[in-house]
Task: structure prediction
Amino acid sequence: MEMPIVNECDATDCAYNQHQACHALAITVGEPANPRCDTFTTATSPAGDPGAVGHVGACKMSDCGHNVNLECQAPGITVGYQENIVDCLTYAPA
Result:
């Protein structure tokens, strides 16, 4: 199984985001109420590997149509704001 890539991230205030690209090696998505990017964090300096493209390491949204055994099966995801929360915008209720 290959981890899906983060195709785009609009959370430009995240420490892992550089030019709308995620540079965390793997993000975690989900909490009981919504498909929040649990890896989102702010910091005074950039985080992650600038040469790496972010991937989805785990997804806790078991009700998503892309989720099989808490692993994302989408070919790639988009992360962005839903109101004031940084969410997986690829989330699709099953």
Notes: The chain has a mean pLDDT of 95. Strands lie at 5-9, 17-18, 21-22, 27-29, 56-59, 67-68, 71-72, 76-82, 85-88. The radius of gyration is 12 Å.
